[in-house]
Amino acid sequence: EWLRKRKKFVGNFALERSQHNQLLEELQQDIQKRQNYLQYLMRYRQNQLLMMENIEQFETRLRSESATCNRYLMAVCVRLFFEKRQAKLAEFQEEFARLTVSDDKIDLIEEFVEGLMEELLTPGAILHGMPEWQAQEARLSIERILLTRLYQQVMFPNEDADLSRDTVLSEHISKLQRVISPSHPALCIPQAYLSEAPWSFSQQQLSYISAYKTPREKLQCVIRCISSIMSLLHMSSGRVPAADDILPVLIYVVIMTNPPFLLSTVEYITCFIGEKLEGEEQFHWTLFCSVVKFIKTMDYLD
């Protein structure tokens, strides 16, 4: 009964062959029109995405250039400020040279910086009324000028002993470079991560560490190095890498980079800002220090 009713229902809408062919032709034309419109929408969407990407890149460049201009402006202001206080700066350097204990030296630098910042922010001073971020940039500029003048004293407080120790480690790492590879069994780097080896960009970021004078700037080189490693490992595996994933790759990167004065750099950063680190900065710095300690114990077996 059901089948009979279905046939009767279809029969009521039966079409002649010419009508049937005409209907199919119209449907095909409609599909073609929709297809053309769909292609137009896809091209329009692609153009929009490309334009959005260009705008984002332009905004990134603008922010970078703006930050560079702000840093340069603050540096100029601080240099002008220092030009009028050469006698005070010379007195500070003499007092610093007389100190022998590292903690006393750090306290003296912080006290001197705080005093200069108070002068910069007093009514009528060059930075009076400026926002907090500019005051922070001015502080960094002051630290950069001071630590550039005192660099040899703060970086190598024990002079030849520190240099000798750094040389020994550098030679040790040079020997490791001859036997180490991304697939070396001592590193245990998972196969999934080897596609991005030898992590040249990370090595490049770490190699910049000797070009900077302040501990904060040196730390940023370490952070950029580890962040780039994390990004590459994430691209290789599709998941967020853990500390155990990062460590063996970071060991390889440090060995292949072999930054100069590595032990002195670690102590310099730890001494001046180690206790102030928190969150992501502390995580990155802890990883890096662990890697340096491990490299010191490595042997040269294949």
TrEMBL record:
<dbReference type="InterPro" id="IPR037191">
    <property type="entry name" value="VPS9_dom_sf"/>
</dbReference>
<dbReference type="GO" id="GO:0005085">
    <property type="term" value="F:guanyl-nucleotide exchange factor activity"/>
</dbReference>
<dbReference type="GO" id="GO:0006897">
    <property type="term" value="P:endocytosis"/>
</dbReference>
<comment type="function">
    <text>Acts both as a GTPase-activating protein (GAP) and a guanine nucleotide exchange factor (GEF), and participates in endocytosis.</text>
</comment>
<protein>
    <recommendedName>
        <fullName>Receptor-mediated endocytosis protein 6 homolog</fullName>
    </recommendedName>
</protein>
<dbReference type="InterPro" id="IPR003123">
    <property type="entry name" value="VPS9"/>
</dbReference>
<keyword id="KW-0344">Guanine-nucleotide releasing factor</keyword>
<dbReference type="GO" id="GO:0031267">
    <property type="term" value="F:small GTPase binding"/>
</dbReference>
<comment type="similarity">
    <text>Belongs to the GAPVD1 family.</text>
</comment>
<dbReference type="GO" id="GO:0005829">
    <property type="term" value="C:cytosol"/>
</dbReference>
<keyword id="KW-0472">Membrane</keyword>
<dbReference type="GO" id="GO:0005096">
    <property type="term" value="F:GTPase activator activity"/>
</dbReference>
<keyword id="KW-0675">Receptor</keyword>
<keyword id="KW-0254">Endocytosis</keyword>
<dbReference type="InterPro" id="IPR045046">
    <property type="entry name" value="Vps9-like"/>
</dbReference>
<dbReference type="GO" id="GO:0030139">
    <property type="term" value="C:endocytic vesicle"/>
</dbReference>
<dbReference type="GO" id="GO:0016020">
    <property type="term" value="C:membrane"/>
</dbReference>
<keyword id="KW-0343">GTPase activation</keyword>
<feature type="domain" description="VPS9">
    <location>
        <begin position="163"/>
        <end position="302"/>
    </location>
</feature>
<dbReference type="GO" id="GO:0051049">
    <property type="term" value="P:regulation of transport"/>
</dbReference>
<dbReference type="Pfam" id="PF02204">
    <property type="entry name" value="VPS9"/>
</dbReference>
